[in-house]
């Protein structure tokens, strides 16, 4: 696939990484290929950075920090607003780049662009609202003041499933707070990140404030180790698996960095007998089939009460069969491929394991040509099956029939993860009981789409630390400083 033919501005496609305001090759001159998930064909090659490149990026961010943090919040907001305006002007091209390297249908990619840009707009405004406090002093001869200052050089390690939004959700608050940052995007989707960097430079974001390193899976380990152990880095933000998050925590511990981790999800989706059936089915499809199920907050465990179970399954199967798979740029396509062969094989393994253990495929249950997998609905699923113990990250819905509210809550909470959860019921008292009882950072109540720039995004237990987005998100990038002023 020639991605540039889908772009109004082909110069947004970069084959160098961004460091200190310059487009650079890796110091070793090595590169790696980026492919089209739908076909496996190579669409670009980008630098394969290693440890030395990572140190150079930190050097650049460290040099740029004093001048950037010295700007007023209003001035940083102005620069970020210019970036936002350029992003809006190039939204169509950004969506095409996402569709090309990540595989989600073009209309869905446009939705990600809108979502991702909302964080730049939001935090540009928040840059002007970083306020401290004057505290009531217990002593008459002292005055107590709390101020907030940028934490310093930051690192952001982002996933492939939302290659634009996961970057803007981290970079925007860092820049608004007065921090500089080094971004290491996923090896599957570096092109979107580099386009963001190009538009940031056009908007007047100073050299070194935003640096973007590209590396393949092997070199990402070397780059990540440098980024998490360098003492000049004050903050590390990561979205990805819990397993990798634990590694980054260990690496960051030697220099006691502040961490923001959005890790694995294993979301329950609970449907009670009194739920609006149509709304529940719509919410299930919306939350599960978006990006072919490759979403951290996509429900992975479906619990449906006995009285509505059969009707829900039938309606969900019919809706699933209406989904059209295909290449991101094909008209009418509503679901794209899995990101790579590893992702496809995991989905296959989960379905095969469930079938061997007694689950029944109602619809789907098979792979198509290439990396496509049919939307799948299964019943008779139990918690001994892989799909209920691991995050499937694919378009597979496994359904468990339950009887009582207490049973549903116990089943939902038994996982070690606690990112997102969903509940469908029209009983207001039950809404409060379940919402307060669920051990998750986010609860969707009669809603399948819960993420936006205004609400805090994050989980509990093994799903991570901290919150992104919202008025709370900028706090991750600020340090409190207490000033005690004697009046004598």
Task: Give a written overview of the molecule.
The protein is of the alpha/beta class and 488 residues long. The protein is 39% helix and 22% strand. The strands form six sheets. The chain has a seven-stranded mixed beta sheet with strand order 14-15-16-13-12-18-19, sandwiched between helices. Strand 10, helix 8 (242-253) and strand 11 form a beta-alpha-beta unit. The protein starts with 16 loop residues before the first strand and ends with a strand. The mean pLDDT is 97. This is NAD-dependent succinate-semialdehyde dehydrogenase. It comes from Imbroritus primus.
Strand content: 15-25%
Order of strands across the widest beta sheet?
A: 14-15-16-13-12-18-19
The structural class is alpha/beta
**Shape estimate:** globular
| Total strands | 22
Mean pLDDT: 97
Low-confidence stretches: none
Rounded to an integer in angstroms, the radius of gyration calculated over CA atoms is 23 Å
> Percent of residues in helical segments?
25-40%
| Number of separate helices | 14
Largest sheet composition:
7 strands, mixed
Distance between the termini: 74 Å
Protein name: NAD-dependent succinate-semialdehyde dehydrogenase
Organism: Imbroritus primus
Summary, kept brief:
The chain is α/β, with parallel strands linked by helices and 488 residues long.
